[in-house]
């Protein structure tokens, strides 16, 4: 167990900002999907580390929706919060908000849910501290995540039942 004490989602939540540079753009002049995913992975990991107090790895990206393009020069606000914890895994939700640098107008451009796994010093999965949702919104996020996790575990079982793909270079 990484810590006996439970934590609220707001105790580990992360918010950070970027300015989108031309090197992060595709030929259309909007942020490259791979760059957006790397920002998402980074803030999710930070929220996971803050919750667990130990190393975490990304086991999967369960949902990823690019709703609106993000333009070069936009400010990007990244918000990550732990939605739900199981034994050694946790779901982190991430919002990528595009902000107009001059008007401050905001739009949720991308959303994602990631599964992270907490590891001990031997790189083995370890139990994570309980999550203590406080607000109505946190409780609702917890319940929605619980259903997603259930569905994901079911889907993984189906995929893994005799359907492992062999990699032949
Ligand atoms: C994630 C990882 C540690 C899981 O190891 P494992 O030996 O399969 O562990 P277990 O079977 O004991 O499962 C541990 C937890 O991970 C979850 N898990 C395992 N594979 C998963 C997957 N593909 N997607 C989501 N969750 C997964 C399990 O449901 C379990 O959760 P629970 O304890 O809350 O019930 C291992 O697959 C790994 O190291 N993957 C590579 C991670 C990585 O390199 N990420 C990119 C850089 S951060």
Overview of the structural elements:
The chain has 3 helices and 5 strands, in the order H-E-H-E-E-E-E-H. With 169 residues, it is an alpha+beta fold. The chain has one domain: Hotdog Thioesterase (Thiol Ester Dehydrase, Chain A), CATH 3.10.129. The radius of gyration is 17 Å and the shape is globular. The longest helix has 25 residues, at 136-160. Strand 3 (75-85) and strand 4 (89-99) form a beta hairpin. The protein has helices spanning 9-12, 33-52, 136-160, and strands at 14-19, 55-66, 75-85, 89-99, 106-119. Strands 1-3-4-5-2 form a 5-stranded antiparallel β-sheet. The protein binds coenzyme A. Residues 57-60, 86-89, 115, 117, 125 line the site of coenzyme A.
Instruction: Kindly report the CATH topology.
Output: Thiol Ester Dehydrase, Chain A
Q: Spatial order of the strands in the main sheet?
A: 1-3-4-5-2
Radius of gyration: 17 Å
CATH superfamily placement: Hotdog Thioesterase
Helical content stands at 25-40%
Helix and strand arrangement:
Elements: H1 9-12, E1 14-19, H2 33-52, E2 55-66, E3 75-85, E4 89-99, E5 106-119, H3 136-160
Antiparallel strand pairs: 1-3, 2-5, 3-4, 4-5
Throw out a few tags for this protein.
five-stranded antiparallel sheet; single chain; Thiol Ester Dehydrase, Chain A; alpha+beta; binds coenzyme A; 169 residues
């Amino acid at each position: 167990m990484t810590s006996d004490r439970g934590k609220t989602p707001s105790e580990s939540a992360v918010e950070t900002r970027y300015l989108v540079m031309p090197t992060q753009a595709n030929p259309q002049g909007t942020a490259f999907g791979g760059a957006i995913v790397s920002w998402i992975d980074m803030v999710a990991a930070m929220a996971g580390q803050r919750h667990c107090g130990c190393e975490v790895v990304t086991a999967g990206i369960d949902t990823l929706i690019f709703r609106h393009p993000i333009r070069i020069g936009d400010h990007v606000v990244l918000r990550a919060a732990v939605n739900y914890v199981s034994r050694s895994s946790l779901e982190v939700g991430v919002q990528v908000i595009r902000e107009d640098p001059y008007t401050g107008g905001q739009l949720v451009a991308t959303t994602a849910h990631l599964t992270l796994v907490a590891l001990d010093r031997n790189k083995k999965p370890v139990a994570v501290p309980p999550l203590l949702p406080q607000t109505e919104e946190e409780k609702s996020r917890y319940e929605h995540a619980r259903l997603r996790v259930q569905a994901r575990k079911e889907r993984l079982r189906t995929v893994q039942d005799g359907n492992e793909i062999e990699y032949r270079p």
